[in-house]
Amino acid sequence: MAIEDDVLVVGGGVAGMTAALAAAETGASVRLVTKKQSTLRHASGLVDVLGYADGDLLADPFDAIDDLPADHPYAKVGVEAIRDGLARFDDVTGERYRGEHTDTNALLPTHGGAVKPTARYPASAAAGLASDDRDVLLVGFETLTDFDAPLAAEHLDAAGVPFASGAPRWPSRATPGRTRRSRATRTPSTATRTANRERLAAHVARVHEGEPRVGFPAVLGEDHPAEIRAALADALDADVFEVPMGPPSLPGIRLEYAYRDALGEAGVHVVRRPVVDYETDGDGRLTAAVVERNGQHVPHYADSFVLATGGLVGKGLDSDRGGVREPVFDCHVPHPADRYDWFVDDVYGEQPYPRFGVVVDDDLRPRDADGRIEFENLRAAGSVVGGHDFAAECSGTGVSLATGDAAGTAAGSDTQ
Questions:
Q1: Distance CA 165, CA 49 (A)
Q2: Where is the FAD-dependent oxidoreductase 2 FAD-binding domain (predicted)?
Q3: Is 343 part of a structural domain of the chain?
């Protein structure tokens, strides 16, 4: 039996899920194929649009869009696509996120004590804004070595945040691993959850000196984070917030669940299988992505396709001694022939390799080495698109939202 859809999206990260939602909104039937879990569970849960330009911290990312190079993804899709992508994100997350009321970047403390500019942030982190001058007490756990609360406090003080911060660490038998496994095994009873919170609050109360804000690492529950924060806030008579953490990230996992629910509500079919080949009509159009299922190769046919598999970090691009390639549809990835030209010796210098990716036109269609469109009905979105350094710019999620929304809308519209 042939598997046919209007739009097929390859890739399950923010760009792919956004593209699938945008395509579904046009009325198209949509299938999303991904070989792995979303990379959101490895992300902080913060949504960056543009935090830095030429190394300078940006207060308003939209002020700098017009000055970006012509090959930057934002220059390809334009400001309105960025706003459309953010609006779609706001629809997915609802009250679980903050920042939609302003274009200005918020400044959030991270688990290492750095201050990060971001356009959207979890409601659970809202009381921790670095621009808030109220004093903070940071609390860590001895079993959670990823968050050294005293060191984070020292770094925040050195960064010149406008508040004083103390930082005790408390022993805890409840490790992050146990917390994260609760969904797969069982959810603790209400009585158990209440007892755990009371014990934690009693520990913190011993050193709490009336600081109006208390920050914990972002491990306060996968299923009931708001309830847990509210209980601790009542017990401590302070605003309680979570500090974004590295992978695996509970805020990222919560965001993944929100997207998963949105895909289900939109009627998007999700297939967790690898794409191993593709088919064309021999006249410049893709006809199918071939998916491996139980040792068999199964064509998934569609009228339009979106490539959103990620960049070098997300394994959407392959690299070896022979060069850099896009492995799904064999799209052209420009890069120096000499591997020693992929990087510069200055570790803090502007590195070439983060900008590797497929070259797209203004409709996000990948182009070959001669500048011709690879496939008329293929668009690219997210980190697989070249021309930006998402780590240096703090632009990763914003690029995924903007290009994902634009690619998905165009792909869906083409089928109507």
A1: 28
A2: 6-399
A3: yes
